[in-house]
């Protein structure tokens, strides 16, 4: 699993053991988005883009994916 805070500390993105990527709004204490990112194991690393619009994730399924989490 992995966690990464946005540069402005407003968002945090988490990679979970079940392969999901979770985008969480720290300011409002709420989950904004859950992405079923990696199907065959845990999400090993996540990073938010500098403008907070995209999430890069990699998983145990050997995939690296760039997500526009706002869609």
Summarize the structure.
With 71 residues, the protein is mostly beta strands. The chain contains no helices and 7 strands.
Task: Describe the protein in words.
With 71 residues, this protein is mainly β. The chain is built from no helices and seven strands. The chain has strands at 2-5, 11-15, 20-25, 30-36, 43-48, 54-59, 64-68. It has a four-stranded antiparallel β-sheet, with no helix packed on it. A three-stranded antiparallel β-sheet has the order 5-6-7, with no helix packed on it. Strand 5 (43-48) and strand 6 form a beta hairpin.
Main beta sheet strand tally, sense and closure:
4 strands, antiparallel
Beta-strand content: over 45%
Adjacency order of strands in the biggest sheet: 1-2-3-4
Mean of pLDDT: 93
- What's the shape? globular
H/E element string?
EEEEEEE
The class by helix and strand makeup works out as mainly beta
Please tally the helical runs, counting DSSP H or I stretches of 4 or more residues. Answer: 0
Helix content: under 10%
Poorly predicted regions are: none
**End-to-end distance, in Å?**
23 Å
Cα-based radius of gyration, to the nearest Å? 11 Å
Give the tally of β-strands. 7
Secondary structure elements and pairings:
Elements: E1 2-5, E2 11-15, E3 20-25, E4 30-36, E5 43-48, E6 54-59, E7 64-68
Antiparallel strand pairs: 1-2, 2-3, 3-4, 5-6, 6-7
Features:
71 residues, mainly beta, 4-stranded antiparallel beta sheet, 7 strands, 55% strand, globular
